[in-house]
Amino acid sequence: MQELSVRHLLGIKDITAEDIQLIFETADNFKDVLNRPIKKVPSLRDITIANVFFENSTRTRLSFELAEKRLSADVINFSSSGSSVKKGETLLDTVNNILAMKVDMIVMRHSSPGAPHFLSHHINANIVNAGDGTHEHPTQALLDSFSIREKLGDVAGKKVVIIGDILHSRVALSNIFALQKLGAEVMVCGPVTLLPKYIRELGVKVEFDVRKALAWCDVANVLRIQLERQQMKYFPSLREYTLYYGIDKKMLDSLDKEIVLMHPGPINRGVELSSDAADSHHSIILNQVENGVAIRMAVLYLLASKQ
Amino acid sequence: MQKRLIVNHQLLEIMVMRLCHQLIENHGDFSDSVIIGLQPRGRQVAQRIQSTLKAILGTTVPTGYLDTTFHRDDFRRRDAPLAANATHIDFLIEGKKVILADDVLYTGRSVRAAMDAMISFGRPANVELLVLIDRLYSRHLPIEPTYVGRRVNSLQSQRVLVEWQGSDTQEDNIWLVTKNEE
Fold it and tell me: What residues of chain A, 67 to 96, have a C-beta less than 8 Å from chain B?
């Protein structure tokens, strides 16, 4: 009989290592449910969940929606395009209007860092952060660590490098928190312009040479270059980035050990990862997607019990 | 806290033996039958029934265990959620005769949840319920066991505790535990 220490999942920073373990253990059971002929349980049948997405998403939104439906919750979807947000409605008004229709939980993605934290001070419903700007993306970090645990047995003691656009990545920050709480060693690797200035303060190693980083690690989590968030030039060209930081099968084969290759998606094939690397046996990218549903079921289930 | 022994290990052995013979009367060679123990405490009952049947008949009846946590009707009505246990059913139950096994039958709510959870694995031909202890006059639902070890009268404040020989106890025993008035 355990429960989470929080009412909302706003970020990995706010939860404890015990919370993460509880989510993993619950997700193990949900993964089992997802492999049954009937992949559905009635736990959340009296709960209504609104997926409120102010920013584009494919995987996260589908994954949340599936997780909610597998738990028998009622689901409503909202995306800012084609809504009254365009007419000038504030975030709080939009959400309060949704809640007035008797909604119990909000899953929100927003382009402003801290948007779900702001909401949590003003509304009663449980909030799950599905990504807030360049800040955090907690469920992605949970499913990443869960996938490492599944592949390598444990996260503690493993060496994980996060490669790419760390500066604009919420996945990177949440991953750093999650991996450190679970006892892994974390390194970040990328061009100097794409690493936050004070990243070392978080207790991570910094490496600029991707080959050295790959030789050091057990797991490489490769991130996309987020051109849509970049308001200035951080490197001369994508081609040059690929030349220095792109990972291909040859690089992986030249290592004297097996490493695990991860990517939160969407992949820009031929930029940060070549196709042969992304489709190689090193890659657990599709396992990550599969685990995403189980992790999100666990998060929603555990939060729903904290109404 | 007071503990009263209601079934000692010799009696429990006889009880399990009797239950197995009753099962044989209805299931014959068990070619179409499977046993499913309800997590957490019905798992050992199922294992004990399986091993006793193997001793009598020489055949191993497929046995699995089923977790009902996500199918319970008291989710969000408790202070904290129940911890889930593993489910392990590596056979098909479609068209099979299913014997659900648990240690104690009390309100019947776990059994209702179990039937719900079990349906996720297929449509059984029929379902029977085997329990070691049936607590009389305490049902919340119209659910009755097919095979009963012993029927006991008990108060709501009491609890039936089934101990299996293992790490913490020397022998199998069933106790009726009365909590002291605070």
Answer: 71
